[in-house]
Write a structure and sequence with these properties.
heterodimer; A: alpha/beta; 2 domains; 5-stranded parallel sheet; 5 helices; B: alpha+beta; Alpha-Beta Plaits; 3-stranded antiparallel sheet; about 20% strand; globular
């Protein structure tokens, strides 16, 4: 069952336009599983908002990546946080975690839906020494919204079984990679995902569309896992 | 809640809780944060809306945290001892 804990902000970085990476430190070790999220108390009245954990399990530390674009109560709280502030964390929460991973794995994200995939992919590649194929397809609107691309490109260089593709729905003329929606590009990359396992994270619409597409491309229903972002 | 000494996640649940929860169906978007926080009280139904499975499934604090975690404030919490609406405020 989840617990409430206090954590201190030790770093806050603006990685791209609306995307902030905040690093917290707890008094004691904070165990969680890659893919889980926490709920932060974001207002004095007790209002909470959920954010995916962006870092791999690492002792007392935890990172959250927050899209402040919506500019709601959670966004304003995150923007107002300063190094040294204490936050109330409820968690870890969620069952969107890696299974045994015995087959090729496809990760499909839109927007900040990529956040839980960062620790999940690192766990597969670096902790489990996973040798089957791992593909990550990430859909964003604009190139200036992108973050972590260097990190994922390096993982691609270091691990021959990892492939990373960015899909922009509103690319500039100079953008040479895939454009459109993630589902458009999945079909361009492979004609069949028969026998693959898929993890989807992002908008409800994307998840519905991609899940239907992947079912048609051979992925078994029980091998499609998803987490909706709101 | 002064009469209840427990921490979130405690196995020592009271047999009867005083907070009654209610899901406002039209507001529920199926985010499932209530299920993650208070899994013995809430579940998602086939329409991806939260249903209450047991008013006494979780302790009062967990039910309140579940309601406060809902991004659309779709869960109301009433203190049955006083009739006061605890959440949303």
């Amino acid at each position: 069952m989840p617990q409430t804990s206090s954590a201190k902000v030790i770093k806050k970085e603006n990685l791209a336009k609306d995307f902030w990476l905040v690093t917290f430190e707890f008094e004691n070790d904070y165990p969680f599983l890659a893919g889980q999220y926490v709920s932060l108390k974001v207002a004095a009245d007790g209002t909470r908002r959920s954010y995916s954990i962006a870092s791999a399990p690492n002792g007392k530390r935890l990172q959250l990546m927050v899209d402040v674009g919506p500019m709601g109560v959670g966004s304003k709280y995150i923007l107002g946080l300063e190094v040294g502030d204490n936050v109330e964390v409820l968690g870890p929460l969620g069952r969107f975690i890696l299974g045994e991973a015995t087959k090729n794995v496809l990760f499909v994200a839109t927007g900040s839906g990529i956040v839980p995939f960062r620790p999940m992919i690192r766990e597969l590649l670096e902790k489990r020494s996973f040798t089957d194929e791992i593909h990550l397809d990430w859909g964003m609107r604009y190139e200036e919204d992108l973050f972590w691309t260097d990190e994922f490109k390096k993982l691609e260089t270091d691990h021959a079984n990892f492939k990373f593709d960015v899909v922009l729905s509103k690319p500039t003329k100079e953008w040479s990679a895939c454009s459109g929606h993630v589902n458009d590009c999945l079909v361009k990359h492979k004609a069949s995902y028969l026998g693959w396992e898929a993890y989807l994270c992002g908008s409800q619409q994307m998840i519905g569309e991609v899940a239907a597409l992947l079912s048609g491309l051979g992925v078994a229903k029980e091998d499609i896992h998803f987490e909706k972002f709101f | 809640m002064a009469d209840q000494t427990y921490t979130v996640g405690s196995e020592n649940k009271p047999t009867k809780t005083k907070y009654q929860v209610k899901v406002i169906n039209d507001k529920c978007i199926g985010a499932a944060s209530c299920v993650a926080v208070a899994a013995m009280t809430f579940k998602l139904n086939d329409l991806n809306k939260a249903d209450i499975i047991d008013q006494d499934g979780n302790v009062d604090l967990e039910k309140l945290l579940a309601a406060q975690s809902c991004p659309t404030a779709a869960i109301e919490v009433i203190d049955t001892a006083t009739g006061e609406k605890i959440w949303p405020k």
